[in-house]
Each structure stands twice: as C-alpha cells, then as structure tokens.
C-alpha cells in the first residue's frame, strides 16, 4: 500500500516540473485521483478538490520526511493477505472526517 503525506498547499513549493504534471480522475469516484509526471510517469503531489490539502506520495521524496505515520486509512478495503497492522497508529476503515 502506498504511503502518502498530507500538507497545506502553502507548505509545498515546486522546484521545477510543475508544468509536466498530468492529473487522472476516476469517473464517478468521490475522491480518487492520481497525478504523475508526463515525462517519466512518476507519481507526484496533487491538491485536494477542496484545496485544503496537498497529497504527496512518500516515494517521490528524495530524503526521509522526518516524521512517522499518524494514521492509516481505508483499512476496510485492504487485501485479504494483509494480516493487519500491529503498531499503535490509529486505523480507519474509510476516510476520517
């Protein structure tokens, strides 16, 4: 399962390549969307529909972010082979409100 970081829009500063970002939205989905680089296909950051936060794929970072997970979401739809998480991080079956 991919790990994502969330931040406020004013906390993200593009160094370059923002013009190469392509957004994909799954038709009919309330929140699902992906953004990727048109040049290399790597997943990249994208803003929420309401503009309140930016989702940053953790795998796109050059360095460790310096923080630990604060929550796990969509646990109700995880694969059967996923034995579950045994740490103390709060888990949610859906998107927390």
From TrEMBL:
<keyword id="KW-0862">Zinc</keyword>
<dbReference type="InterPro" id="IPR011057">
    <property type="entry name" value="Mss4-like_sf"/>
</dbReference>
<dbReference type="Pfam" id="PF04828">
    <property type="entry name" value="GFA"/>
</dbReference>
<protein>
    <submittedName>
        <fullName>GFA family protein</fullName>
    </submittedName>
</protein>
<dbReference type="InterPro" id="IPR006913">
    <property type="entry name" value="CENP-V/GFA"/>
</dbReference>
<comment type="similarity">
    <text>Belongs to the Gfa family.</text>
</comment>
<keyword id="KW-0479">Metal-binding</keyword>
<feature type="domain" description="CENP-V/GFA">
    <location>
        <begin position="3"/>
        <end position="76"/>
    </location>
</feature>
